[in-house]
Write a structure and sequence with these properties.
By secondary structure, the protein is α+β, with helices and mostly antiparallel strands. Helix content is 19%, strand content 14%. It has 2 helices and 2 strands; from the N terminus they run E-H-E-H. 7% of the residues are buried. The protein has a two-stranded antiparallel ribbon with strand order 1-2.
Length: 69
């Protein structure tokens, strides 16, 4: 578990938005996540460098394809 100010944030794999669109009754705390550097406030950090950060999910991809990205 992260702590406020540790510059880490959970990055869900696949994204929360993807899972919510594909799985009935899915909730955020059911998803798989890794802790990723996310400098706050500001720019940079590995979380912002992921392909899915700040984007809508591609719902045409399978879960396997989404993980591969």
């Amino acid at each position: 578990m992260g702590r406020r100010g540790d510059n880490l944030t959970p990055h869900h794999i696949p994204s929360n938005a993807y899972m919510k669109a594909k799985i009935k009754d899915y909730t955020t705390n059911q998803g798989i996540a890794i802790m990723v550097e996310h400098l706050s406030p500001g720019k940079g950090g590995r979380h912002r460098q992921t392909l899915s950060y700040g984007k809508s999910p591609d719902l045409t991809l399978s879960p396997r394809q989404t993980l591969a990205q």
